Amino acid sequence: MIQVSDIEAAAERLAGVAHETPVVTSRTLDAAVGATVVLKPENLQRGGSFKIRGAYNKISSLSGEVRRGGVVTFSSGNHAQAVAIAAALCHTRAVIVMPDDAPPTKLAATAGYGADIVTYDRYREDRAEIAGRLERDQGLTLVPPYDDPLVMAGQGTATLELLAQAGPLDVLVVPVGGGGLIAGSATALLARSPGAIAIGVEPEAGDDTRRSLESGERVELPAVPRTIADGLQPVTPGRLTFEMNARVVDHIVVVSDEEIRDAMRFLFERMKLVVEPSGAVGVAALLVGKIDVAGRRVGVIVSGGNIGVDRFIEVLG
Questions:
Q1: Which one from 202, 207, 230, 276 is the annotated catalytic residue?
Q2: DSSP bridge pairs for 117
Q3: pLDDT in tens, 58-103
Q4: Which of 54, 177, 253, 277 has the fewest CB neighbours in a 10 Å radius?
Q5: What pLDDT is recorded for position 124?
């Protein structure tokens, strides 16, 4: 279990490495939802998403000998790019297991940062099993995309920054994939804004965390969810993230792909932000009234913006 002190230590490691992304507001958004809303646009972060925070915190914390052996991870794109960047900054090798249908821009960016890529079929093969085999055979160290205390603590620095920039919040809205971002974010929130609540957002087709929290145990979806939010497709929450989120998350809501598209369009047209589907789910939940925020101060983590122009046009078309 992580504490706010772990997040503060991560912030010190990330100083000068991760960007301090700004806070963005919109009177149109405030009027639409009846609240004061502040966005933390991690689509403007190094590598295009919040993921550099956790990846660098993990890799930079490894001993010199372990670090020299190289690292391995599995990711549909954003964590892949983050690990590639962090490994380069820490002067070590990165091997990334990525689905063969990952967005071409994410594949190209990951390779461009110097990582070695191993592709797999996300609907037929087990990415964790492949990464585990590479870890054993090549003497690499696994950098999990979410189920790791150092990764979770690194992700929580985004909310630590948001609270320092915007002041106390009543509600924090966070996208949920494997659960690392909301675990770190909610921990930071509760330490700095006692009485506030953290609410997660998942795509309708990929509501494994919602089902798990409601049932009191980890639930596994029968298949990889098919959704435009490609970064939010785990079939079950992590073991550590589930334990954390059962303690610190108030509840989870879900949004449809069409609601995500509308939020992406709103963010682009009204706020001039290019956001990938996974990053837009929090704003989508607000715009369609899935969360009661009337009269409150609300923070939203916009988690990423790694989407190519062709895909952006295709999604919104």
A1: 202
A2: 96
A3: 999 999 999 999 999 998 789 999 999 999 999 999 999 998 988 7
A4: 253
A5: 87
Structure tokens that stand for 229 in this block:
């939010």
What gap in Å lies between CA 6 and CA 82, rounded to an integer? 20
Strands (E), the chain: 36-41, 71-74, 94-99, 116-120, 141-142, 171-175, 197-203, 251-255, 297-302
Whether residue 125 lies in the annotated active site: no
Q: Indicate which residue of 77, 212, 303, 304 is catalytic.
A: 303
Alpha-carbon gap, residue 2 to 175, rounded angstroms: 19
Q: How many CB atoms lie within 10 A of CB 206?
A: 22
- The yes-or-no answer on residue 202 being catalytic is yes
- pLDDT band at residue 8 under the 50/70/90 scheme: very high
What is d(CA 58, CA 257) in angstroms, rounded to the nearest whole number?
32
Q: CA distances (Å), 102 to each of 55, 87, 151, 153, 233, in order?
A: 19, 21, 22, 26, 12
Which ranges in 169-308 belong to alpha helices (H)?
180-192, 208-215, 239-248, 257-271, 281-287
Question: Is the pTM of the predicted complex or chain greater than 0.85?
Answer: yes
Q: How many CA atoms lie within 13 A of 268 on its CB side?
A: 18
